Amino acid sequence: MAKRIFIRTIGSYLPERVLTNGDLEKIVSTSDEWIVTRTGIRERHIAADGQTTSDMAAEAARAALATGEMNIVDIDAIIVATVVPDMPFPSTACFLQQKLGARNCPCIGIEVGCSGIIYMAEIAAGFLERGQHSAILAVAADKLSAVTDWTDRSTCVILADGAAAMVFSGEESGAIAEFLGSYISADGSGAEHLCMPGGGCRNPATEKTVTDRLHYLKMNGREVFKRAVRDMATAVQKVLERFAIDSSSIAHFIPHQANMRIIEAVAEFLNVPVERFVTVLDHTGNTSSASLGIAMDEASRAGRFKKGDLVMPVSFGAGLTSGAALLRWLK
Ligand code: COA
């Protein structure tokens, strides 16, 4: 029989500085009305100038460890999902390890955009099933503001900073949820629709790449929108099929928080009332890989999940990657 996998604890972090739609009206040609009706976002959090992705990851990890009454010495592997690493190398997971004072554990970095948490769940489950690790810290963090083009109104109004952390373990005792399984996928044919073209070996940093603004996140918003709806709905259906259940069995969907219209379209496609989708994007914006973890943490703290609830996180991100997972809430 396959080993059972649990989420022991969750935590999240949003930087102190708040940027409202009104603040953005002073930076680019936009309006609160446009942003709210086209995206559902009212405000977002932006990291301090010197604050790094690993700083935010450490805050979320400490919050998760405190909530789960765990100590860093309990952790025997670290995974970090980010597309805005502290440096191109070494892995941000190693900087996080340094900040948390964790010792002698493997550190893994993955770059799957906003699908980070679902991919990390799948990787953590594989590690735990092999039986050589017992508690895996998985942290999703992105300082998107560092790669945001503050002159591009189609991206700067949605992007934001934040981090979320979870600990996966093989022990039911003290766990908040059981991880029942997941589906992950990618469609590299759409890779250029959401990318940062500069800084890698295709366009190494030069004066020209800076002048051409290649070190900023570029997005083909309409194409990403269409694919997000299609691929998130597909990911949900794959998991429902695998477990032979239908969407009415799911008490709460936790979607990637990109745009309220994307979430509404996925809900409509699945014929599920949108009220069953947890949303926090009105005050967080799109926090990339951390977004559904922040939503899950806030909903959990608000007491929205009940013991026995089936909960389904679903994501879509750069790559273009997608995925969904099935959890049973235990507390
Ligand atoms: N304020 C005012 N007008 C804006 C604007 C802004 N912030 N951003 C774009 N516009 C304008 C455009 O210039 C365009 O004007 P035009 O018709 O005169 O050319 C008009 O609004 C419509 O642009 P469009 O790109 O079609 O808007 P949209 O309804 O698709 O919304 C996004 C744009 C980016 C919000 C939307 O495409 C989106 O959410 N895409 C997916 C984003 C996402 O999920 N990203 C992350 C995935 S992990």
Walk me through what this model shows:
The chain is an alpha+beta fold and 331 residues long. The protein folds into 2 domains: 5-178, Peroxisomal Thiolase, Chain A, domain 1 (3-Layer(aba) Sandwich), CATH 3.40.47.10; 180-329, Peroxisomal Thiolase, Chain A, domain 1, CATH 3.40.47. The chain has helices at residues 21-25, 32-39, 53-67, 92-100, 116-130, 153-156, 207-211, 221-242, 260-270, 281-284, 291-301, and strands spanning 5-13, 17-20, 43-46, 77-81, 107-110, 135-143, 161-169, 177-186, 194-195, 218-219, 252-255, 310-317, 321-329. The protein has a 9-stranded mixed sheet, sandwiched between helices. Strands 2-3 form a two-stranded antiparallel sheet. Helix 3 (53-67) crosses helix 4 (92-100) and helix 8 runs parallel beside helix 9 (260-270). The longest helix has 22 residues, at 221-242. It starts with a strand and ends with a strand. The structure holds coenzyme A.
